[in-house]
Amino acid sequence: MVKGTYQPKFQKLYDIFSDSLESNYELGAGISIEHNGKNIVNLWGGYTNEKKDQEWTEETIVNVWSVTKAITGICIVKLINDGKLDVNNLVTSYWPEYGNNGKENTTVKDLLTHRAGMFGFQNDYPQTNWNDWHAYVKALEEQKPFRPPGSSQGYHAVTFAWLVGELIKKIDGRTVGEYFKEEFSKPLNLDFHIGLDKKDLHRCAEVSYKRLDNLKPPLDFIKYVPSFLLNKDLINYKETVISKDFLKAFNSKHFDKNGPNSVDWRTAEVPSANGHGTAYSLAKLFGILSNGCEINGNKLIDQKILTEATRIHSKGPDTVLFGSKLNFGYCFMVEQSFSDKLNFAPIFKTETFGHAGIGGSVAFGDLKNKIGYSFVCNRQQKTSNLYKTSNLLTKALYELLD
Asked: Is the peptide bond before 317 cis (omega within 30 degrees of 0)?
């Protein structure tokens, strides 16, 4: 079921990847890894749909969900690099219309680190299609934040798209999809897109999607336990269960009309969640950034600026993700402290930056080890095992590189 290439040293990665498909745990998937500027693994296999009547090929692209946030983050870093953006400025310095209803003192850094208190829509999603960019932006401009900006971290699962996306548009004039295409995709020959052309729709793998707004939090009974009986972490958890911030951020009803396999979703630009591409292109991009940010003598970004953008700028506890101590740089998931035996979060080691998607896809760069890594897939697993396959591959990779 598996095609592609890999260096013999990495046979274990081939075996893990193959087993995940042969066992039917994964439906279809791809993995690609760059190390020291060279591709060491590039594999794909399985099927693009549950009918299993279409094989996954080298040309197959798939929605990688929140991995898209890291791509948007790369655009942000480029704007900083080019002197067009200062993260310490107020958002209103670039986007005056944002400054009302308690959002006046929101900084750019608040937006980039999920600290803007805008992790959902106060009045539900605008009742329109995904391509109606202005409707989503206007709703966010006008509403009050759920929490005071800068006061806490709360993962902006979907709203990140229009918050950071409109910031980029106000600064540069181009949409995120246009900016990434012209600054990165074309020059680097990357098969990754935010907003698909109709000519590419036939290459899309169908993705499975489990609605999360019906999810009952683990230990839901904790809301009835007196706080004096709980330690600090459990008190944080209790507060997030009571606040229901998770449900506000992951409200999925809007997908009932135009789901993740619809033409509307695929052709829209939702730069928090609907990037489509190949594992090879993601690994190539993160590999370049982790290996001096230079290709063919062309310096993309100053290494010092990337290093600053990928250090920990917010540590949680995250009010949306049940008080978890998730670490963020500027849009990026960065080094995480979770045990590598747990699969509800991706393994991100020291000096690693990237993002994971709710469907199980993961992409990251490793500045310390000069790695570009990507695993993409189209079958969403249970919440406790979202990143099981990717974590098995990641652990094996580092063991083989040691």
From this structure: yes
Main-chain dihedrals φ then ψ at residue 202, nearest 5 degrees? -70, -15
- State whether the Cα torsion 362-334-211-270 is positive or negative: negative
- The per-residue pLDDT for 224 is 64
- Contacts within 8 Å (CB) and 24+ apart, 324-330: 326/153, 326/155, 328/112, 328/113, 328/114, 328/153, 329/73, 329/113, 329/353, 330/73, 330/76, 330/77, 330/80, 330/87, 330/109, 330/112, 330/113
Sorted by where each begins, the domain ranges of the chain are 2-212+243-401
Residue with tokens 């094989």: 55
Q: Is the pLDDT of residue 309 over 70?
A: yes
Q: What is the pTM of this model?
A: 0.94
Radius of gyration of the chain (CA): 20
Query: What's the rounded Cα separation, in Å, for the pair 143 and 145?
Result: 7
C-beta of residue 249 within 8 angstroms of C-beta of residue 156: yes
User: 311-348, pLDDT tens digit by residue?
Assistant: 999 998 899 988 888 999 999 999 987 777 778 889 99
Contact between 110 and 369 (Cβ < 8 Å): no
Residue given tokens 């693994």 in the structure block: 41
Report the alpha-carbon distance of residue 124 to residue 116 in Å, rounded: 18
Tell me which residue of 69, 108, 106 sits closest to 87, measured CA to CA.
108
pLDDT at residue 6 is higher than 70: yes
Q: Say yes or no: domain 2-212+243-401 is CATH 3.40.50.880.
A: no
Phi-psi region of 60 (alpha: psi -120 to 50; beta: other; left: phi over 0): beta
pLDDT for position 216:
62
- 210 φ, ψ (degrees, to nearest 5): -105, 120
